[in-house]
Design brief:
It is a single chain. By secondary structure, the protein is of the alpha/beta class. It has two domains: 5-218, DHBP synthase (Alpha-Beta Complex), CATH 3.90.870.10; 245-342, Rossmann fold (3-Layer(aba) Sandwich), CATH 3.40.50.11030. The protein has helices at residues 17-29, 51-61, 76-80, 88-97, 131-140, 160-167, 206-210, 252-264, 275-278, 293-306, 326-336, and strands at 5-8, 34-36, 43-47, 70-72, 102-107, 122-126, 144-145, 173-176, 187-190, 197-200, 217-218, 245-249, 269-273, 285-288, 314-318, 339-342. Strand 9 (187-190) and strand 10 form a beta hairpin. Helix 1 (17-29) packs across helix 5. The radius of gyration is 20 Å and the shape is globular. The chain starts with a strand and ends with a strand. 49% of the residues are buried. The structure holds threonylcarbamoyladenylate and magnesium ion (MG). Magnesium ion binds next to loops.
């Protein structure tokens, strides 16, 4: 057990802001793991140039060794120091979307340790758009490898409490900068070919990217369960809540009938849905994901974590239209669910 340190700097005006970040940065530079907020989800950081430090990330999360990590940096200059060559379309995308929720997969120049890239020739690089992440990255002045700061298989963390629930005692510290904003992870974009390929839908949408590059492809494995995904992490079941989740598409009437039938069998039902659904439905426990698809993305992982075994036997969750950020939301929900019912 490690005595996990926690710094509360949700309010950037607090007196201990710089001191907290300096302590966190010095742990990172000393080869320890520290969790910190980004605009998407909390990341579990370690010095990306230090093989042994990166090993601690895999151990704390119970993460499969073949799943590469994203290297986080504060500036474009720092990003350039990790890769071989940046295609001109990536320069254009970086001007618009970085800092922001996008990760570029580029040929690595070997600066990052080989367990960051899981032995691949490429490396994922990202500039997060969060003041605490930026200040921390500037303070440590090394690239920071950081997967989402959850136990492998669980929903990603969007608050420091989520990180604490999963990793207290296993990591050196958590910087509590409050709840994250976007809520789903960054878009992972393979930029090693002339035409970029979305390996994981995320905070920057396909439509947004297509405003700046002519063609954006999507990894066929995202639509076909039997194809092998190009991002190693996409093949694992993920985001699993404690109890089974059914993703459901239907009318208020058919969904309420489904809920009532399950309750008659003695099952306690948790409903995870937008306010539009909740107005018309009732279950044993209800969690609102808000009004818009952006609200849904923001609140999704907290919702998945709130239903507890013992209180609830089955989660019924609304299926959302798969456009815009809805693609990322539905990608995560399909992985979290055991069934997708179209009533
Ligand atoms: O928003 C995010 O991206 C968050 C925050 C903390 O930055 N990070 C995150 O990391 O979601 P992680 O490790 O949970 O997911 C990274 C994904 C995985 O699916 C991984 O397989 C893929 O990116 N990936 C990383 N490096 C890659 C590479 N060189 N080639 C292909 N896929 C890669
Ligand atoms: Mg993850």
């Amino acid at each position: 057990m490690i005595d996990t340190k926690r710094w509360n700097i949700e309010n950037r005006e607090v007196d201990n802001y710089s001191q907290a970040l300096e302590e966190a940065a010095s742990l990172l530079k000393g080869g320890e793991t520290v969790a910190f907020p980004t605009e998407t989800v909390y990341g579990l950081g370690a010095d990306a140039t230090n093989h042994q430090a990166v090993t601690k990330i895999f151990e704390a999360k119970g993460r499969p060794q073949d799943n590469p990590l994203i290297a986080h940096v504060a500036t474009k200059e720092q990003l350039r120091q990790l890769v071989d060559h940046i295609p001109s379309y990536v320069e254009r995308l970086m001007d618009v979307f970085s800092p922001g929720p996008i990760t570029y997969i580029l040929e690595s120049n070997g600066t990052c340790a080989d367990n960051v890239t899981a032995g691949l020739s490429t490396v994922g690089v990202r500039i997060p758009d969060h003041p605490v992440a930026r200040d921390l990255l500037l303070a440590c002045d090394v690239p920071v490898a950081a997967p989402s700061a959850n136990l492998s298989g669980k929903p990603s963390p969007t608050t420091a409490n989520h990180v604490w629930d999963d990793l207290n005692g296993k990591i050196a510290g958590v910087v509590d900068g409050g709840a994250t904003g976007v809520g789903v992870e960054s878009t992972v974009l393979d930029c090693t070919q002339d035409i970029p390929i979305i390996l994981r839908p995320g905070g920057v949408t396909k439509d947004q990217l297509e405003e700046y590059v002519d063609t954006v492809m999507v990894d066929p494995a995202l639509a076909n369960q039997h194809a092998k995904p190009k991002a190693p992490g996409m093949k694992y079941r993920h985001y699993s809540p404690e109890v089974p989740l059914w993703l459901v598409d239907g009318s208020a009437e058919t969904i309420q009938t489904l809920i009532d039938d399950e309750r008659k069998k003695g099952n306690k039902i948790g409903l995870l849905a937008s306010n539009k659904w909740l107005e018309h439905l009732s279950a044993d426990e209800e969690i609102s994901l808000g009004d818009t698809i952006y609200d849904v993305a923001t609140h999704l992982y907290d919702g998945l974590r709130t239903f507890k075994e013992g209180n609830i036997d089955l989660i019924i969750c609304e299926a959302f239209p798969e456009d815009g950020i809805g693609q990322a939301v539905m990608n995560r929900l399909k992985k979290a669910s055991s069934d997708y019912l179209k009533l």
